[in-house]
Specification:
Blueprint: H1 10-18, H2 26-36, E1 41-44, H3 51-63, E2 77-82, H4 86-99, E3 107-110, H5 116-123, E4 127-132, H6 134-142, E5 153-156, H7 159-164, H8 168-177, E6 183-188, H9 193-202, E7 207-210, E8 221-227, H10 233-243, E9 249-252, H11 256-268, E10 273-276, H12 282-294, E11 299-302, E12 317-320, H13 328-334, E13 344-350, H14 355-365, E14 370-371
Parallel strand pairs: 1-6, 1-7, 2-4, 2-5, 3-4, 5-6, 8-13, 8-14, 9-11, 9-12, 10-11, 12-13
Helix pairs in contact: 2-3, 3-4, 6-8
Bound molecules: adenosine monophosphate.
Length: 395
């Protein structure tokens, strides 16, 4: 199947082809016709499947004014995409702009941490597509910087993450303000009971698409783990970077302060790295991400906040320096590599204390992760082999 059979206009086809997309991914093949037909949609698709284009392309097709620009009313918006994190919102905005390159449509990201007055000015004449995090959007609505009467399409992206992050009240407040005759689309990595409940309150009779009903890692990602004593982790990481001549790695740690500590430890061994976490200003987060994407910075030490919303075309390696908790985050983290069919590797450092966490991750994956031993790093405290039907207790 090619993009040209999906009912998209030539300007969109040109933009997509310039980005090097040859065939639509599974979610794009299924979602684009449904969205073009005007139906509501609930889709289970993980990040990395091409889901952003699956809603942005038909949205642009529907909003496309043709020759004459659409006359926007002041402070009005025509489509709203809600995303859980600033990074994801900015990433989606960049995608919208890239796909809309040859169309007469405007897009704006409304996220916290950036100048609210400037954002208000950008809304004065109205904007076709707003991509927002829920908190900043509500702020803007309360301040009457935008209104929703002309809204045609609502997208809730990464709905499961939104709920995990406690955005349900904000979401309900936003939804209450939207006109009833809009089209609504919801995307989520998994359709949990909570997500379905949210979907039921938002949509009538939505079409449901399941691309990845069970959370599984993309097969193009090689996963392996190294058991290591806690106090040897930074030495092991430096050893791998130097010995294997790694040119790039996104390294996940659990806490902000451990990110700074690890960067310092790597620095002592001559390896330049930087941190990425919620304690940094929006400006420095964007800068460090841009440097990492361009290859200027080879090693980025990040907390879980980065596990969604970072889309780096050719990220070859993710390291779980600390194992993530809950287990679902493992899938999101390693999904930063091997995107859209490219190959990648995900390496996890596991210490004895991580045993339960490892059981939870391997049970979720449905298989044991291959173990590798690294010469010079014998373990004092061995990590047993997991029990695969392990169910973590709810906290
Ligand atoms: P997403 O799941 O939206 O985060 O997209 C993952 C990555 O796949 C992004 O880098 C997109 O630019 C890329 N992508 C999306 N659709 C296609 C396609 N049809 N062919 C190749 N790459 C794609």
């Amino acid at each position: 199947m090619s993009f040209s059979t999906l009912g998209l206009n030539d300007s969109l086809l040109k933009a997509v082809s310039e980005l090097g997309y040859q065939t639509p991914t599974a979610i794009q093949q299924k979602a684009i016709p449904v969205i073009l037909s005007g139906k509501d949609l609930v889709a289970a698709a993980q990040t990395g499947t091409g889901k952003t284009a699956s809603f942005v392309l038909p949205m642009l097709e529907k909003l496309n004014p043709g020759e004459e620009p659409f006359l926007l009313r002041g402070r009005s918006i025509r489509a709203l995409i809600l995303a859980p994190t600033r990074e994801l919102a900015l990433q989606v905005e960049a995608n919208v702009k890239a796909y809309a390159k040859y169309l007469n449509l405007s897009a704006l990201a409304l996220v916290g941490g950036s100048d609210i007055e400037l954002q208000k000015q950008q809304l004065v004449k109205g904007v076709d597509i707003v991509v927002a995090t829920p908190g900043r959007l509500l702020d803007m609505a309360y301040q009457r910087a935008l209104f929703f009467d002309d809204l045609e399409i609502l997208v809730i992206d990464e709905a499961d993450r939104m709920l995990d992050m406690g955005f349900i009240d904000d979401l309900n407040k936003i939804i209450d303000r939207l006109p009833g005759n809009r089209q609504s689309l919801l995307f989520s990595a998994t359709l949990t009971d909570e997500v379905r409940y949210l979907a039921d309150t938002v949509y009538d009779d939505a079409v449901e698409i399941l691309i990845s009903p069970k959370k599984k890692a993309a097969p193009s990602i090689k996963q392996w783990l190294i058991t290591v004593d806690k106090d040897k982790k930074s030495a092991l990481l430096s050893h791998l970077i130097n010995e294997k001549r790694w040119n790039q790695a996104l390294i996940f740690v659990e806490k902000k302060h451990s990110a700074a500590k690890l960067v310092e430890q790597l620095g002592k061994r001559g390896i330049v790295a930087d941190t990425f976490h919620s304690g940094k200003s929006q400006g420095s987060r964007e800068k460090v991400l841009a440097d990492f994407k361009s290859g200027k910075l080879q090693f980025l030490v990040a907390t879980g906040i980065a596990s969604r919303g970072i889309d780096i075309q050719e990220l070859s390696r993710v390291v779980n320096y600390d194992l993530p908790h809950p287990a679902e985050d493992y899938v999101h983290r390693i999904g930063r590599t091997g995107r859209a069919g490219a190959s990648g590797e995900a390496i996890s450092f596991v210490s004895k204390d991580d045993f339960k966490n490892l059981c939870a991750i391997e049970s979720l994956l449905g298989h044991i992760i291959q173990r590798k031993e690294i010469e010079g790093f014998p373990v004092r405290k061995a990590v047993p082999i997991s029990i695969l039907n392990y169910r973590p207790k709810r906290h």
